Amino acid sequence: MFYQLYELNHAAMAPFRAAADIMRFAYANPLNPFSHTPLGRTMAASLEMFERTTRRYGKPEFGLKQTTIGDRVVSVREEIVWSRPFCNLLHFARNAPAARGNDPRILIVAPMSGHYATLLRGTVEALLPSADVYITDWIDARMVPMTEGTFDFDDYVDYVIEMLHFLGHDTHVIAVCQPSVPVLAAAAVMEEANDPLSPASMTLMGGPIDTRINPTAVNKLAQERSLQWFSDNVIMNVPWPQPGFMRPVYPGFLQLSGFMSMNLDRHLVAHKEFFMHLVKNDGEPEKHRDFYDEYLAVMDLTAEFYLQTVEQVFIKHSLPKGELMHRGKRVDPAAIRKVALLTVEGENDDISGVGQTKAAQTICVNIPEDMRMHYLQPDVGHYGVFNGSRFRREIAPRILDFVRQHSRSAVKPPVPRVIKGGRTA
């Protein structure tokens, strides 16, 4: 009943939240003389803090309306080009100059691990000037009716394969964090079947390929608990009146509590500073709002997908042991021969430890040496692997270079093996 109580509490707080919002506007209105006093700003700040800590954050927008190609600013149109019950494939269609030719086609597989695909807004933005970008927009499980069936690990792999088929020849795939395992599995399944539409290259970023290497707090928690414990303690049924009523899920609000507890001190300090900026009225709060509007927006995961991921990736380590199954057949990473492999890690990653993603280089034994590369970015944590200034300056250009070098419709120049500023293997 915990999910039901959560929903009841949220509904019960609605009138108080609305009243706080109205009072905040009154206290913050510049026409109100009281708004120019420290006491008035303190009241407005307190009311905003109450409203923000009791609201449910909806799915953010990408909001990428334009990009720069060469020296020209062009418009960007977001469109759904492929759809299934649990995922939409978004295309960021650029109004690129006709004379530019074809940029590489990149499929970004966003994590299905709590946050929406918009968490990768910076990833998309950095690649847009040089690539034709698509991204998986996973749908909140509580919004999917039970009549649409279940969604498990096998379905995830199938969705990736279907999207690669839809996008066609010479597509490059980037997996950010959690999808590294199903994306590698999809590539292996396609290669074993001699599928001509297997990806031209595969970039795995901060992913849990082998969590036995440098285990983090997240990995250790999974090792210390049984699968039954996770089933008993974090799986709940979606309450009425949500469209997914009675669907068993791992609720987003539980995931968020886990995210927050990992760096609780940092979040408390951030909110304290936010409050002080509001009182001082110094214009700094907008950065806080933007970050937490994104960070606090979470989605439910289907129980079957979550439990299978915990079991296969974090408890049994099935992929690096050669025991991962897809539709009753063993997934063989050694079958991957024609897909170029780039692995990217962050030196300070506290979610996927250093070496966990690089393990893909070890298990994909038949990828030629000139089609593989590993890059370790110094001085970044998990988030910095796919977002932020170092990603834009150091990582994104290297991904684009790797993609261009391994395009199946272009002449392939030699692949550089040493990258200045990082570490390669």
Walk me through the structure.
The termini are far apart. The protein has 14 helices and 15 strands. The protein is of the alpha/beta class and 425 residues long. The chain is globular and about 70 Å long. Helix 1 runs antiparallel to helix 2 and helix 3 packs across helix 14. Strands 1-2-3-5-4-6-7-13-14-15 form a 10-stranded mixed beta sheet, sandwiched between helices. About 3% of the residues have low confidence. Pfam families: PHB_depo_C (PF06850). It comes from Rhizobium leguminosarum bv. trifolii (strain WSM2304). This is Polyhydroxyalkanoate depolymerase, intracellular.
Main sheet overview? 10 strands, mixed
Task: Please provide the ordered H/E string of secondary-structure elements.
Answer: HHEEEEHEHEHEHHEEHHHEHHEEEHEHE
Structural category: alpha/beta
Annotation, overall tally of beta strands:
15
Spatially, the strands of the biggest sheet line up as: 1-2-3-5-4-6-7-13-14-15
Domain PHB de-polymerase C-terminal: 206-406
Protein name: Polyhydroxyalkanoate depolymerase, intracellular
Pfam families: PHB_depo_C
